[in-house]
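Supplementary Methods, section 5.1.

A reviewer requested that the exact input to the structure prediction be made available. We therefore reproduce it here, unchanged from the version used in the analyses.
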Amino acid sequence: MDKLVSSAAEAVADLPSGSRIAVGGFGLCGIPTVLIDALLEQGADELEAVSNNCGVDEAGLGVLLYRRRIRRMISSYVGENKEFARQYLHGELEVELTPQGTLAERMRAGGSGIPAFFTATGVGTQVAEGGLPWRYDSEGNVVRSSPAKEVRVFSTPEGDKEFVLEEAIVADYSLVRAWKGDRHGNLVYRQSARNFNPVVAMCGRVTIAEVEHVVEPGEIGPDDVHTPGVFVQRVVALTEEQVADKRIEKRTTSGPRPAGAGAGTGRDR
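The structure derived from this sequence is encoded token-by-token as follows.
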């Protein structure tokens, strides 16, 4: 089945306002920037976004956030986005903070047809006991908090231990970026850009992949496939210019340190 569509705009044309979208990437690495920009132009709003983070100010998911297209976030890390913090603390954005590994497993479970699972992560904290602020009002008062979750004791090789129940995540649409893919939707991610993309691709009812290098079916060896085409419904081939347009969050150099600089290795990060 040929899943190649003509443009990112066509790929997201039917994504309605109010949808839950899962978005791949980590920081600015491996994020589907072209699809995000197309969604911005498309105009959908009131979105619930599931992603490790919300990009940075004016980049990645940050472009949707800045224009008030996102009403709710399920994420792990939000420290690189000042506008995110401002909206959250002023009651303009609801945020469900989730431990990073738990977030990944919630999406993997959603793609595997597993409705929930038990994990030791978060036991004895507000993650399990409830009370994490999800939404503030404009005066800084908490108006919605996380609920308490079921905790059960299971026998382990180390003895009886408590585990907290976490529900799976299934998204209406998933947006991912791959280094290589074919017309059937089989995808390969490159190095650290693999990050959240595989589990994001799994959990979407409709998964859309922007692909840097589109090849013909059969050119990707079966053992090299990271995301099988069964999880992908639409493939967008990127232009050379789109492939080359990749931002760096923080640039450091390995040159001589200026006099008076603090301790550190000075190595690239």
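The longest helix spans residues 100-112. These observations are discussed further in the main text.
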